[in-house]
Amino acid sequence: MIFFANEQHDYVLTFDIEFDQSSIVQFAGILFKKMGNDGVFAIYRTLNTYVSCNPSYPFRAYTNLSTEFLIENGVRKEDLVQQIEDVFLKDIPLDKLLIVSHGLQSDREILIKNCINLQYDPKTIKPIDGYCTFTHARKILARKENLKLCDVAREAG
Known about the structure:
six-stranded mixed β-sheet
């Protein structure tokens, strides 16, 4: 369970992706569902999936994900897209969803290049609400450096 003060959405999706240039390699997300009107949310669904691929050396050095691990534990990119759309977010009304990411604009761009739409509701063409922890940390902490997610989390205790 987690507390999101003053959050009006019924669902909050926090996620992180890893990508090699513009190809998605990992999607990790936790979907929270509102439990009442007091800001308490509970974990509703989780997804942590790798794509079976042979990433570049810089990607492997940065993430410590080996080609062998990805091939053994990954799925086809098409299967990842299907897991996200048909299982993870299957019955979630997108107008009641808030997505949270550390670098939301760039994450959305990478996802859309990989056929994963977290930008807009395809039925209504309305944008899906989002919150960028990087942008807000920059404002709240009034600085332009040391804003990696681990830096912000460590500083917040």
